[in-house]
Design brief:
The structure is a homodimer. With about 180 residues, chain A is mainly alpha-helical. Chain A is built from seven helices and two strands; from the N terminus they run H-H-H-H-H-E-E-H-H. The interface between A and B is large, with 53 and 52 residues.
């Protein structure tokens, strides 16, 4: 296995453990605030990651392998979690994500090898992409959304830090993305 | 114990586990990129968290308890890790942080109870602050810097995601903090 494939799957295997360490059994007061106004609470982020396991990464890898550039990817619903997850607890969502990620990685191992990394597919909006780009994006998408969870959690304590807010970029950026801490 | 104290220490206990899940045994290629130009690599962030355990949180809590507002906090060196940690591996730094955090929480439990939360201290630059604000800031500081680790890790894959970068805020914001993903 190439370094690229080994190191990408290394990261993908970490994410459920990171999210579990951060969210499993979390006191409710840490989880009820979105990352920005109108943004996502931790449970929304985990819901979105669940959707991506179901509809995005493996289905798109399969599309590349089966159809190359001739059939574009299906459009991905970034808000599919909104009503779907209403009756699930945060812990249930974390477990569900971990289970789906484990299945995705088993499937990835079955279907994608180094020889496939330069195969091309057709993104419905972005045009031609490669399997390598899809897998790198999967990993960075994990990092992007996991870090979004931290912003919501920090936001839940916005009123508690007093004058220190001046130094806390994660809070300042919720109000102004270009804010620079003092 | 009040909800505030219980929920704040709950978060503080999580951070070493989150950082371990994210960084322990990490392939080197994921760890060599700073969060922004001139910013911090994951190992720099962990070094800064180590400094804060040594010089910031518990020493300041003790200062409040011993001197109230009459003796201001000592200034905190945000770059103390820079030469100190050169000969330590990332895994060694993660272990060191976990050990120090465990000691900090044991000490916190010894010295701070609910009755102390409204005691006042004097920040060297910000003026009067409370014990409650110090502890809330400790937790948000964890979240702020842990999320910084994700930005560096994502940055290490900036060249690999191709056109998808357009959708990945965590990469776009490394170039322009106000960037909004497509």
């Amino acid at each position: 296995m190439s370094e690229f494939l080994a190191e990408t799957t290394d990261l993908l295997r970490r994410t459920p453990n990171v999210i579990r360490a951060l969210l499993s059994g979390l006191p409710e007061s840490w989880g009820d605030t979105p990352d920005t106004e109108g943004g996502w609470r931790p449970r929304d982020v985990v819901g979105h990651l669940i959707t991506a396991e179901l509809d995005d990464w493996i289905p798109r890898a399969e599309r590349i392998l089966e159809h190359g550039t001739s059939v574009p990817f299906d459009k991905f619903d970034r808000f599919a979690h909104v009503s779907r997850d209403d009756d699930r607890t945060l812990d249930q969502l974390v477990d569900r994500f971990a289970q789906l990620r484990s299945e995705s990685l088993a499937r990835l191992d079955e279907i994608v090898s180094d020889a496939d990394l330069d195969r091309h597919g057709m993104h419905n909006a972005l045009g031609e992409v490669t399997m390598r780009e899809l897998l790198a994006t999967w990993a960075v998408h994990d990092l992007d959304h996991t870090s979004q969870i931290f912003a919501g959690m920090a936001g839940s304590r916005d009123a508690d830090v007093g004058a220190w807010k001046h130094y806390l970029g994660i809070l300042l950026r919720r109000d102004d993305p270009a804010a620079v801490p003092g």
